Amino acid sequence: MSVRSEARTQDAAAEGAPGYRARHTLPLRVEALRQWRRRRTLVMGGVLAALPFVLVIAFAVGGGPSDDRGGGGRITPIDVATASGANFAVTCLFVSAGFLLVVPVALFCGDTVASEASWSSLRYLLAAPVPRWRLLWSKLVVALAFSLAAIVLLPLTALAVGTAAYGWGPLQLPTGGELGASPLPRLALATGYVFVSQLVTAGLAFWLSTRTDAPLGAVGGAVGLTIAGNVLDAVTALGDWREFLPAHWQFAWLDALQPQLEWGGMVRGAAVSASCALVLFALSFRGFARKDITS
Amino acid sequence: MRIRLPGRRGRLFAGAAALLVAVGAGTWSATVSEGPPEVRRTDRVLRMPGAAIDTSYFTAGGPGRRPAVLLGHGFGGSKEDVRPQAERLAGAGYAVLTWSARGFGASGGRIGLNDPAHEGKDVSRLVDWLAARPEVRLDAAGDPRVGVTGASYGGAAALLAAGYDRRVDAIAPLITYWDLGEALFPQDVFKKLWAGVFFGAGAVPGTAASGPAAGASPAGSEAGSAAGSAARSRAAAGCGRFQPELCAMYERVAVAGRPDTAARTLLERRSPAAVAGRIKVPALIVQGQADSLFPLDQADAMARTIAGNGAPVSVDWAAGGHDGGLREQGRIEDRVRTWFDRHLKDDRKADTGPAFRIARTGGLDTTDGEVLLRGAAAGRYPGLGGSRREQYALTGPEQRFANPAGGAPPALSSLPGFGGPLAAFGTGLSVDFPGQHARFDSAPVARDLRITGSPTVRVRVRSTAEDGSAVLFGKVYDVGPDGRQQVLPGQLAAPVRVTGVREGRTLTLTLPAVDHAVAAGHRLRLVLAATDLGYATPAQPATYTAALEGPLAVPLAPEVATGEGGLPWWVWGLPPVALAVAGALLADGRRRSRGPVPVPDPELAGVPLRITGLTKRYAKGSDRYAVRDLSFEVRQGQVLGLLGPNGAGKTTTLRMLMGLIRPDAGEVRVFGHAVRPGAPVLSRVGAFVEGAGFLPHLSGQANLELYWRSTGRPAQDAHLTEALEIAGLGDALERAVRTYSQGMRQRLALAQAMLGLPDLLILDEPTNGLDPPQIREMREVMIRYAAAGRTVIVSSHLLSEVEQSCTHLVVMDRGRLVQAGPVAEITGGGDTLLVTLDGPADDPAAGKVAALEGVASVVRTDEGLLVRLDGATPAGLIAELVRLDLPVTGAGPHRRLEDAFLTLIGGPA
Question: What is the pTM of this model?
């Protein structure tokens, strides 16, 4: 086996231009540079970095969260948003995890291939030649890295802004009490789970991106399907079947902020999300490998 | 004699009518169609001494004898409350009998608080009745196999039944009392709020007409309806349906504010505690952790006594209770059923669960906001003392605090029926008024601690009251590190009346039994309060003094371990399945797309391009071909023009050449290597096809640099400077590509195609958008490029371009090859003349010329007539034209490819 594959690489070396090696095409650094300077990347980063400031101003103008407890009866982290920097970071995550954080993930993963197609640069990359699996791999890794950066950026900014505004302190729990130890490991866990739970959106967006030449179609489609998942999850008549909807677990990261760390919801959510994403990624690679590029 | 209200008479009449029907027509039955198996319900009113008892009998499935279950209801409710559970039990293979106890629902008689002489005997008569049923399994004649269960009032009935009737085989009392005297008068303190709710509910004359809705949880509805009834009872004073002696006892105690011996004895005699030694059947004891009416110590007494009698006992501390509703209805119902499966059906495989189980809160369920529960279990019930004790030193000086006159304002621990699921998180209300309590704090606990049982503490108490007594409420708070946030576990307080403490006395206080986790860094706080809203306290003002005599002894039961969260199988199953599916998808995709890799042909290593039999249909299975059976070859050093009108298939061919689309048949070989998507040999090909493709946000320079880095090849192989020279963009290279004109993009794209000086350069319509000087320059670039031994393929429909730069031609039309060969061969010799006329040439004129001898063809163009000679000489032709009276202004040789091309593909002539 190894002998054969070695023979093949030698062939390939002879076949291609000097210095050409399929594995070295479209390095991650290059793809990251290609995406980095895009306006949408900067706008997205700007929006996420600005949100904590907007919330600080909102709390300052509105007089703090505890003045008007919502009548819904559900306890949310917003109730203790201004208790400390860590609490403020959790609040920012809470208000944005449902929708705002879906957008960068859908954007980075949905736009990546489709926009190349719409610029016609895809065919030049493929003819360079960047092997198709290599192209998707680089794009997927970079898109996921950008998504992760976006998701981490928000709580990080919020932590900094919140600490400046409300001071450093232990994490107050909305249910009463506080987390004794440093809030950072729990915050990191929560953020990490938010990213994992968004993998399914990433998978959807990436798959759509390989199917269409319209970047907005891929991004919008992924966001739309995510919303459809939320709607389905609201149909309580589905009963236990809802457990297989990734949207069902989108707030499971709050378990990381309970007095006793609760793993159940996050493990389930991660299993559903990662499994869906895995299949969707495989579908993307499979479809793209056989696709006729007409863009 | 009380006045009879009209409603009461009406109800009696209804009861009598029901009895008539029952007697006259035998029984009337209703079938309940709630899923298979079908449950049959039979309602009967059974006449018993002093009362008519309203019953429902449930069976399901076929004939055959089965064990029976008696299912009691909660205080203030009726048999309707337990109907759903009865139907489910019947479906599980039991004959289930529910009844409304005396004084409740449609049953007659007076409430005797499970009076052995009345309610107790009623249950025995129900057992008699079951023994006569043909469906019920018998242990002996007149002795059915029967279990008794129920919550609260019904649970006590179960305990009493086991005590008074030897035929009962198993019981499952839920959230109930062992000693009602101790429950309502704990440590000689009157639990006035709960007692009021209790007696108020029974004192309402209209209970039968307004029974709580069926289906609500028995405990919840009991508390709820009791509280609601209490409000109504203010209007309807009196004893309602209570036995007069009970009523009198309650009124006496309520007025006095403290129980007397007679009251205590009366209630004790009617409690299961009175028959403690006779309860010897397997008992599943479920008690609520948020229950200020029947706290955990009631269950503890039950469990110790019954286990001491030698019967198997399981203790289950459930979430909720009378204060919070029984929040685990489904789980407890299942557990009761398996308990009966084991002990009534003798099913040895039935898992009755651990001997001791505690429902612990694991936080909130983020999907629906409910509190998550998980079970902690142990093989042995340790009792309220725990399996071991730890001492926590408390600090605090001797403290004086006041019992205010009239006992107001009272401290607050819990309100009857008002706990809520969040009590466990400490969001419940608890208030201690300053000056009315003493408090003693521990140091922050060093590590996480879980209290399981009743802590105890030794204190020295003094009182200034005249009778030398004091009423104290002991509470243990969990105080957060900031010293402000405090949680009262279970919202429970332990009352105690101490006497003879005028001079001071040391006593051991037993604090509320709880299961509560105290996080490291938190403190324990002992509070001794003089008042509590739920209890009657002395109205005479007094000053109490309390001082510590020892540490707080905290019971622990570390062996009670929280089980795994119980993740469903799919949590671990799903990812591997997804991995397998993903793997299969990829493997299948690879198998289909790869096919056998064609062997390189060494003989063709020097041939830049050979296309054989290339075919591509527009859509799979369609009959329309984009390219059909195309074959040609390009040799080194050639500049090949690929020629054809729009839609001839040129671009499709080039895309197949670049591995972008997959041919349906035939193959493309570049330097002997078959082209597949991403074939390495493509690195020797530079291409510009169908316009430029750049990242609009990057500069021209950055685009080229990043493109080259994308190929992964060494930077020095790029020959970037040469390529940029060709592009000739100057300063514009630093601007973002989105600001470029069409021509600038075009030139940048050509530069990109030439990066790395590829051996084969493919240019599709390269002169689009270029101005004439640039077109000429482009032409020279191509010729120079090929002169260096490389090969260029140019596709165009602007034929004059191709004519001037190409050495060879391939002419395509409608997907097919029309002609291939050197340019000169295709354009032919000097036998084409362009005849220009004065004025536009018309068809008749062209026809006349075509008819001349020695003329092969005539094509009318904008400039004039294009005449291809076949034997005639130019001079002869001109003479003939003049003879035809055509206004000839000139004639000259014409060798332009365009014309040759038009004639080849049968253009508009």
Answer: 0.70
